[in-house]
Amino acid sequence: MKLMHQLNSGHPIIHTLFLNACLFAGDCIFKSYNAGVLIYCIIQSVLLSGIFTYCIYKLYQWRTGTIVVVGTFLFFAFNPIIQAFAFTTTKDVLFSGMFLLVIVFSFEIIKDTEKFFSTRTYIIRYGASVILMCMLRNQGKYVFIVFIPFLVISVKNYRMKCLILGISLIICVNLIMGPISTAFGIEKGNMREMLSVPMQQIARVWNKNPSSITEEEKNIITRIIPVEYLEQYDEYSADPVKSGFNSQAFTKNMLKFLNIWINLGLKNPVIYLESFFCGAYQYWYIGPRLYCYDGVFYDGSFMDAQYDTLKITRHTLLPVYDEYLRNMSNGHDYNRFPVLSVVMNMAFPFWLMIIGISILMYMRKYKYISIFILPIGYWGTCLLGPVAMLRYDLPLIVGIPLYIGIVLAVKRDYEKLNSVIA
């Protein structure tokens, strides 16, 4: 296997290297890149199964109840979305597993801070989980940075230690993803992903109210995004517009572009809001959708000959099960069932988190609300993404049993305390 492209941090390097290593192993051992994909999927599914098993054990240890423990097992084992993603090579799968572990370990820090800091193993495993989470998706770092002050506030007598731990982990992540990566010749990724919302808003104004844009502003905009890409505007996906984004032109005209974005927003506030809602409403709206990516690309993406240079093919030994997963992940067969259609909805994790936070506030267990900063923070980053996709929502979906379990674990302690006082 030879290097086809320059590595850059736009895609997680650790995931790229892991996938590449599996492909290389398949080629060396079995003379087949298909075998390499199989090796990757088996390792990933085993890791994911181990993380899920650990979460189930923790829910049992927290005494959340038999129904929750058994329900969690059934959720992880028989959820068709999880089954399909377990054998998908997208980076979001492994990130979801590490994100889950960080939530579990963070809850245990707040639940028993003294025990955490008195055991070196707990500190090491927490640090490793956070670093891997941040390395598997850039959002992980930003979410953890936001989480640090909430964690510090939630732990009495250990605030300085928590602060030092959090800052130390962020420094480690920045060193790995910065100087160390650069030393190995890894270039920085394209910044267009984080500009998806501004690009979409400007493109919507360009198509809906072009008279509000001055000739000077049009000149700057088209240097960065050519006219043909602006005219390809899709209100539900930023991909057609951002595919024409010129990074070098943006760097030279950054302040001018941002000023134009602000000025056009002041002139067209309703159009800007419409653009934002079209790109993000699937993350909070439970109901029929006009256009969405709330499914799994079950048969792969970029499988055309011009892209599939490794000649990867799919072969199933279980055609009935294969068709079931395809229908459930792409055909949305679950939408026929009232309750299941809600539970499988991309917006369900968000409303479950809101309910969980509300219950904790009612019980006045404010410090445990900090745990929900992690999934809520990640949810916030999804709103700023190029498109609302199921794979982006996967880290929130796999956390559903934990949101329920954490609230029940706190509720059990709350009721136990009240019974003692009574």
Automatic annotation (TrEMBL):
It comes from the Bacteria. The chain crosses the membrane at residues 12-30, 37-60, 66-86, 93-110, 130-155, 162-186, 337-361, 368-388, 394-410. The keyword Transmembrane applies. Keywords: Membrane, Transmembrane, Transmembrane helix. InterPro entries: DUF6020. Coiled coil: none annotated. This is Glycosyltransferase RgtA/B/C/D-like domain-containing protein. It comes from Sporofaciens musculi.
